[in-house]
Amino acid sequence: MIELQEVTKTFPGSGTPAVKGVSLQVKSGEICALVGPSGCGKTTILRMINRLVEPSSGSLFIDDQDIMKVNPDHLRRGIGYVIQQIGLLPHRTVEENVALVPRLLKWPEGRIKERVEELLEKVGLDTDEVRKKYPYQLSGGQMQRIGVARALAVDPPVMLMDEPFGAVDPIVRLRLQDEFLKLQQSFKKTICFVTHDMNEAMKMGDKIAIMNGGFLVQHGTPREILAQPANSFVEDLVGEDRGVKLLDLVRVEALMLPREAGTANGRSVQALDSAKKALEVMLEHNVDGVTVCREKQVVGILTWETIKTYVHQAGSEAGG
Amino acid sequence: MDSQLFLDTLLQRSPPHILEHARLVLVPLGLAVLVAFPIGVILTRPQYRRYAGRVMAVLNAGQTVPPLAVIAVFLPFLGLGFRPAVIALTIYALLPIARNTIAGISSVSEDVKEAARGMGMTPWEVFTQVELLLGLPVIMVGIKTSAVLTVGTAVLAALVGGRGMGAVIFAGINFFRPELILAGTLIIGLMAILLERLLTLAEWFILPRHLR
To answer: Looking at chain B, which residue has its C-alpha nearest residue A102?
Structure first.
C-alpha cells in the first residue's frame, strides 16, 4: 500500500508549490492512474514516492513504513521504476540492463541469469534474440518492454510508472497496455501510473487520481469519475463522450439479455468485449442488436435500447 | 640541403633527445590529467556546477598566454632546467582535459542518470558506472588534444635548459642548418602521431564495447 498524507512540495526558487496538500491511498494490488495536464504535479508525486524528490511537508508511507526513515538508495531498489524515456543504460546489453537491480542487491550470478530469462520471456521478448543486444539496436516497443522487465527484476511489490508507454506509436501502445494488464493480473503489484492521457488512465487505472495545479481534484474508480465528475475541470478532461467511455468500461455480458443456446444470426460480439465494441458493431452495420457469444456458443443478445438506457441512467446518476 | 647531415641528425643526433622529449611530454601530461580531471569532475557535481563558468574562464585565459611567456614567468622562481619546463607545460595542458571532462560528463543524458538513480544506484555508482563510462570518449579526446599539444610545445623547454627535441631544432636555427630543423620536426611529428595512436589503443580497452 502506498499512502500520502498532506504532501506538499515547493521547489526552491518557485513561489507556488508544485504539489499542494495531497492525500492519497493506493491499495495493495491496485493500479492508481495519476492524470492531469503537464505541470499539474503528477510526476512530482511519483518522484516523491521513491525520494528522487523530497517532500517539503507531509508524510509518505509504503506498507506503513515511513519512507523518510529508509535509506533512499535501498528504498529505490525495492521499487520498480519505469519512465517514458526508459533510460536504459546505452553501454550495457539488454541482459545487463535487466540485471541492474539484482546486481546492486548482490544476487548470485546463476539466479540473476535465470531471472533475466524469465523476465524477458514474460514481457514477450525472444530471450536469445535480444539478450546480447545494446539498446540502440532495439525498436521503441522492445525498449519499453525491457524498461518494464528491468523494473520487475527483483519482484518489487510497488511500481512507479511515468508515462511508460508514451514513447511508442498508438498501436504498439495499445498492445503494451494490454500485455501489461495481463501481467498485472498475476503480479498484483501496487502501482502508481502517471499519464496525461485520460483514455489510458481509464484503461489502466483501478482508480484514477485527477490532478490540477498541484491539487488532487478527484480520486475514484473510472466509473465514478465518468458518472460523477467533481467539477467542470474533470468534465472537460473526460470529454463530451462520457457516455461512450462508460460503455468502454462495461462488458457486454453485464448488459446482455441472456438467451438460450442457439446459433448466431446476424452480427455477433464476444461476451468479454466492451459494450462500446457492441455499439460500434451496431453502428457500423446499421442494426439494432447483436448476438452475444462465448467462444462459438450463443449466450445472449444486446440491443440498442439496452445500451441507450444504461448510458442514460449512468448520466442521471451524475444528477445532470 | 645536406642529406647526410639530415640522416645523421635523424638517426644519431636525435635519439638521446627523443627520450628526454618523451619525458617532457609524459610528466606534464600525467600531472595535467591528475589536476584537470578531478577539477572537471568536481565542476559537474550539482553543488559546484555554478562555478564551472568562472573556472573555465580562468583556464581559457591561461591558454591565451603564449607558452613561451608561461615559461618566462616561472623562470625567476624555478630557475632553469626540467622543472620550470614541466610546470609550464602542465599548465598549458590543463584546459583541454578539464574542458572535455566537463563536456563528456555533462553529455550523459539526464534520462539515463534519472533511471540509474531510480533503480537505486548510489551517486558514486552512477558516477563510476554511468557518467564516467559514457563520458569517456569525449574525455579521451581532451587528453589526446593535450598530448599532441604538449609534444609540440615541449620544444620550447630547450630554451630554459630543459633539453628534449628542442635542443636539436634550436641548434638548427642558431647555426642555419635546415637539416636539423627538418629532422627534429619530423621526429616530433612522428612522436605526436604515435602518442595519439597509443592513447586511442588504451581507450579501446577501457571503453564499453558498443562505443568502440
So the answer is: B119
Residues of B in contact with A163 (CB under 8 A): none
Question: What is residue A307's predicted lDDT score, i.e. its pLDDT?
Answer: 87
Last residue of a domain, one of A192, A219, A241: A241
Torsion on CA atoms A232, A233, A234, A236, rounded to nearest 10: 80
Virtual torsion, Cα B7, B186, B15, B178, nearest 10 deg: 50
Q: Which residues pair with A61 in a beta bridge?
A: A3, A66
**Are A133 and A281 part of one and the same domain?**
no
Question: Which of A50, A83, A89 is facing B130, going by the closest CB pair?
Answer: A89
- Is residue A218 domain-shared with residue A263, that is, in the same domain? no
Calculate mean pLDDT across residues A284-309.
Answer: 87
Residues with Cβ within 8 Å of A302's Cβ and at least 6 positions away in sequence, in order, are A252, A255, A256, A257, A269, A275, A278, A289, A290, A292
- The domain containing residue A236 runs over which residues? 2-241
pLDDT the model gives residue B43: 93
Total number of domains in chain A: 2
- The three-state secondary structure class of A162 is strand
CATH of residue B114: 1.10.3720.10
Convert the pLDDT of each residue in A53-62 to its tens digit: 999 999 999 9
Look at the block and give the residue holding cell 496538500. A21
The residue type of A248 is: D
- Domain CATH number, residue A62: 3.40.50.300
> B4 to chain A nearest CA, in Å?
54
What does the block give as the cell for B167? 635542443
Q: Which residues 114-153 of chain A have a CB within 8 Å of chain B?
A: 134, 136, 150
Same domain, A287 and A143: no
Q: Do residues B89 and B151 lie in contact, with contact meaning Cβ atoms separated by under 8 Å? A: no
Chain B: residue whose CA lies nearest to A72: B120
What contacts A128, CB < 8 A, 6 or more positions away? none
Select from A217, A241, A265 the last residue of a domain. A241
Contact B170, B159 (CB under 8 A): yes
Provide the whole-model pTM.
Answer: 0.81
Q: Are residues A8 and A65 in the same domain?
A: yes
* Calpha distance A178→A181 (Å, rounded): 5
Determine the residue of chain B that is closest to A85 in CA distance: B111
Backbone phi and psi for residue A318, each to the nearest 5 degrees, phi listed first: -70, -10
Domain that holds residue B121: 3-211
Mean pLDDT by 10 residues, chain B (212 residues): 84 87 93 95 90 86 81 81 86 91 92 92 93 92 94 88 86 89 92 94 80 64
Asked if the interface predicted TM-score (ipTM) of this complex is over 0.90, the answer is no
Cα separation, A79 vs A195, in Å, equals 19
Confidence at residue B212, expressed as pLDDT on a 0 to 100 scale = 63
A-chain CB neighbours of B114 within 8 Å are 52, 83, 85, 87
Q: How many domains does chain B have?
A: 1
